[in-house]
Amino acid sequence: MQKLSVSEIISKIKNEETFEAVALDYSFTIKIDEYVPYACAAVHDGHQFRKDLWDNCLHTEYERWFEEDPSTKEFIKSHPIVVAGCDSRFEYDLNRDPENAVFETAWGKQLWKNPLPLAQKQKSLAKHANFYKVTHALVKKLEEKFTAAIVYDIHSYNWVRWDREVPVINLGTTNINNNRFNTFVETWRSSLSKLEIPEIKETTSKVNDTFYGNGYFLKYITQNFENTLVLATEFKKIYCDELTGVVFPEVVSAIEQQLRQKVKEHAENSYERIKLK
Questions:
Q1: Domain holding 188: CATH number?
Q2: What percent of the residues of the chain are helix, what percent strand, and what percent coil, each to the nearest 5?
Q3: How many CB atoms lie under 10 A from the CB of residue 45?
Q4: Domain total of the chain
Q5: CB-based contacts of 229, cutoff 8 Å, min separation 6
Q6: What is the CA angle 264-266-268, rounded to 5?
Q7: pLDDT in tens for each of the 277 residues of the chain?
Q8: In sequence order, what are the beta bridge partners of 235?
Q9: Beta strand pairing status for 240-241 and 246-247?
């Protein structure tokens, strides 16, 4: 994996080069093995937390891990185009707009012992901005090359805090053009309901049951690119023990292996029709 500046990454995308890179500040990774009409993203996969923030942070490492989306990059690692965040959302949240990306409180608890200095906040927001410069360049290239594209926006969510049964997979769609894209949402939901997951009797998959697709990543792409469908896909954390932080590698592997085919099939069967919609 190369270490590249944002401008070098964007240049390679514009030139349609294949490459795998980490940003100079290690804030995100991008892999392009082939230019295809779909991409996968795991914006909350990261757990890194800048050292100059440690002493000022009131949340423990476990508390941060609990709200992150561990293993989501692993789910999609085999696909030709993968972008993923490396930093914890507790430094800055890639799925929130710049005005709200750096938290003061997180999940009902004050985050910082002392107010975050402006210089530290600006350093985090610069990384947020760089990620979106690359995202913009990537989706622009895919639309230029293929007319239409699909972005599989992969997340996970905690289920222990819910007081009712929640689906294994939830699709959030309130901020996409549902009149245009509802068919593709349903085929994706149906495909995911057929996942075979160790120790899970039924892979329930629903739309807008627990989350509604209000993330900034989806909104940014949707607002800037009319022919790109973003499918915000949330996996219930059945692949780990939320209370201990133990990850179940056999479950992660099962999901990853099946998504290899399911993502590819859905994208190939959908993007040509999206162009005509």
A1: 3.40.630.40
A2: 40, 20, 40
A3: 28
A4: 1
A5: 148, 149, 150, 151, 176, 181, 184, 270, 274
A6: 65
A7: 899 999 999 999 999 999 999 999 999 999 999 999 999 999 999 999 999 999 999 999 999 999 999 999 999 999 999 999 999 999 999 999 999 999 888 888 899 999 999 999 999 999 999 999 999 999 999 999 999 999 999 999 998 888 899 999 999 999 999 999 999 999 999 999 999 999 888 999 999 999 999 999 999 999 999 999 999 999 999 999 998 989 999 999 999 999 999 999 999 999 888 876 6
A8: 156, 169
A9: antiparallel
> What six digits make up the tokens of 8?
């070098």
Phi, psi of 208, deg, nearest 5:
55, 45
Domain limits for position 14: 2-276
> 3: part of which helix (H) or strand (E)?
strand 2-4
| Residue 186, C-beta contacts closer than 8 angstroms, at least 6 positions apart | none
Q: Which residues lie across from 263 on neighbouring strands?
A: none
Residue for token digits 């995100």? 28
E strands, 54-132, where?
81-85, 105-106, 109-110
Q: pTM score, two decimals?
A: 0.95
Q: Fill in the amino acid letter for 180.
A: R
The residues facing 20 across adjacent strands are 31
Q: What is the CA radius of gyration of the chain?
A: 18
The pair of structure tokens assigned to 233 is 């896909």
